[in-house]
Amino acid sequence: MIDIKGRGVAITGAASGFGMGFAKRCAQMGAKLALADIEGPALEKVEAEIRAMGAEVFSMVIDTSKPEQMEAFAQKTFATYKDVGVFFNNAGVEVAGTIWEMSAKDWQWVYGVNVLGMAYGIRSFIPKMIAQDTEAIIINTSSLAGLVQGNISPIYFSGKHAVVAMTESLEIDLRDKKTKIKSYVFCPRFVKTNLHLSNRNRPAEFQNDPADPYYQTEDYKQKQALMTYAVLNGIELEESMDMVFAALEKDRFYIHTVPSEPWPSVQERCTKVLENRRPGEVYIDPNTK
């Protein structure tokens, strides 16, 4: 982990969950914070809390699925702090359901944030981080869902797989170009965040037709309830932050929040791939966090 005291740290999805956790932890480490989120009032609250901790901070309300807004955030971050040591490319949303029943707007919204938002973050921040010619890191937030098989939320799972692959490609490019930047992919299991409440920030243009019968079915309700259960029964946010920063200290590319190693569900998926076996469902054990 590089020394971030006095350096800029940019975070998307900073108004709650992991983004808020990253912001508070980095403020304790003496960083200068640039915070972005689509949820204005909650972002203002986090900004005030960070300022009360004695850290320099500013915030911007942006939609990370809009490339021009991501670029504006990056430009303001570098104009304000000149030097950026860490970029947490973190914003994410979820919606559950059966893959062929979910609407085009579901796909457009979740992929817009979880996949394209990540790409726009890379495009906006990495060239500027390379140009500053100092050691820096980028952490892309994926999920354990990006490393395993599952059908609870096919849009979320497939998008998070894309983030893992994107970060792997990024790391290879960063090395090939002999930059001073390292990348990491954060693949948390279940952590107590507001992920299950993602619809609170869903833009009007991506709202589903209220007359669509699928969203009244037991299938949809059960899968969304399972996702909610998983989040609410996860580990505490602070515990996950301990794991993230410990992994950064050890320079671990794949950062996780699973106490045991190797990750059982990841090992199972890899075994199935190697043995050419058909995928299986994700089992959520309430006794295993």
Tags for this model:
13% strand; 289 residues; Rossmann fold; alpha/beta; 8 helices
User: Count of DSSP helices?
Assistant: 8
SS-based class: alpha/beta
Distance between the termini: 26 Å
| Annotated CATH architecture | 3-Layer(aba) Sandwich
Averaging pLDDT over every residue, what do you get?
Answer: 94
What are the secondary-structure elements, in order, as H or E? EHEHEHEHEHEHHEH
According to CATH, what is the class? Alpha Beta
Sheet with the most strands? Answer: 7 strands, parallel
Number of domains: 1
Shape: globular
Output the CATH homologous superfamily: NAD(P)-binding Rossmann-like Domain
The strands making up the biggest β-sheet line up spatially as 3-2-1-4-5-6-7
> How helical, in percent, are the residues?
40-55%
Question: Unreliable stretches, pLDDT < 50, 5 or more residues?
Answer: none
CATH domain fold name: Rossmann fold
Q: Quick one: how many beta strands?
A: 7
Spatial extent as radius of gyration: 19 Å
- Beta fraction: 5-15%
